[in-house]
Write a sequence for this structure.
């Protein structure tokens, strides 16, 4: 199949594109190469993907509607994409407090351009990356897709929830089959430098202190990157329709009654305390961390906790890779690449 993926120089987009290319699919990758973090890392990801003849990179911003549309023309020899997977976004909860306009431009204007592209291309399936942040400080656990998500705590979360709502309207008006999937604290090799695991490992190797927010009392539903990619690919084959509405007892399907639109969590349902997370890193690295305990930051939530029931019902799979295995894979990757990529 031919996939169009936005954000292929990003952490998740890189892993997803590589898996699809390894499986024999063709991928057109669209990425803005923004300087939010180390460009060497982004360039190295695209360089690795470019080793596959079936990968076609396009560099540009989502806000440039004409350039985004031209990606279809650039891949005319392999035909229009059957699936569009929209991963590109301005990421980061805390950065949204500093530069909210970046989230407006990328996550709202840029996502609208992707919706227009999917509508005009007549794709078989549009898939959109959302986030567990839309649940805000939800007190009901685990977080289920049908839970109220109308009280976002950051502009990042608000922009992702708005994207889901825009997509539902397009799905209804233009019958574009759409799945929005909500991530839960993804980690692994080639990860982003602003993420906790990356920062902690870097600091520990440099014998610097690590900053632990919320006095270490927070918990997160950590999801290893390979598990996330498997979940996305599994869902890509489940095009929302009444034919695959889940009717199993105890599982609430989010398939809309007005549109071929569905929201699905991709998380293992196994939240881990922040201090247990740090303990695992110390065990893998064989050294203690110098800890600096800090209060909860503005916009942070005390916990994330996914219900994987709908994902399992639709795909028969859920995240399974354990934290120690995943942390070890990241540490090995980081040690191998830190000098070359100046991490």
């Amino acid at each position: 199949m031919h996939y169009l993926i936005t954000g292929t120089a990003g952490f998740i987009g890189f892993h997803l594109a590589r898996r699809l290319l390894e499986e024999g699919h063709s991928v057109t990758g669209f990425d803005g190469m923004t300087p939010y973090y180390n460009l060497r890392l982004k360039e190295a990801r695209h360089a690795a993907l470019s080793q596959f003849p079936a990968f076609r990179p396009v560099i540009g911003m989502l806000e440039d509607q004409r350039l985004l549309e031209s990606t279809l023309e650039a891949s005319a020899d392999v035909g229009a994409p059957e699936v569009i997977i929209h991963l590109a976004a301005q990421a980061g909860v805390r950065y949204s407090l500093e530069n909210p306009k970046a989230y407006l431009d990328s996550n709202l204007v840029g996502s609208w351009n992707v919706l227009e592209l999917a509508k005009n291309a007549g794709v078989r399936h549009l898939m959109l990356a959302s986030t567990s942040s839309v649940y805000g400080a939800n007190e009901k656990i685990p977080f289920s897709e049908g839970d109220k998500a109308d009280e976002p705590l950051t502009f990042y979360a608000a922009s992702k929830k708005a994207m889901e709502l825009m997509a539902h309207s397009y799905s209804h008006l233009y019958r574009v089959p759409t799945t929005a999937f909500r991530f839960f604290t993804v980690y692994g090799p080639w990860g982003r430098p602003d993420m906790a695991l990356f920062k902690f490992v870097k600091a520990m190797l440099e014998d610097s202190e690590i900053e632990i927010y919320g006095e270490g009392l927070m918990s997160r539903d950590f999801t290893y990157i390979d598990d996330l990619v498997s979940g996305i690919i599994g869902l890509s084959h489940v095009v929302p329709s009444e034919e695959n509405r889940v009717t199993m007892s105890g599982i609430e399907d989010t398939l809309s009654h007005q549109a071929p639109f569905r929201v699905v969590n991709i998380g293992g349902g196994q939240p881990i305390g922040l201090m247990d997370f740090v303990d695992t890193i110390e065990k893998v690295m064989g050294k203690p961390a110098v800890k600096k305990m800090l209060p909860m930051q503005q916009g942070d939530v005390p916990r994330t906790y996914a219900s994987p029931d709908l994902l399992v019902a639709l795909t028969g799979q859920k995240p399974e890779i354990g934290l120690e295995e995943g942390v070890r894979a990241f540490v090995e990757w980081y040690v191998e690449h830190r000098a070359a990529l100046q991490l």
In short: The chain is about 40% helix and 15% strand. The domain at 2-184+222-268+305-320 is CATH 3.40.50.720 (Rossmann fold). The chain has a mean pLDDT of 94. Residues 100-121 form the longest helix (22 residues).
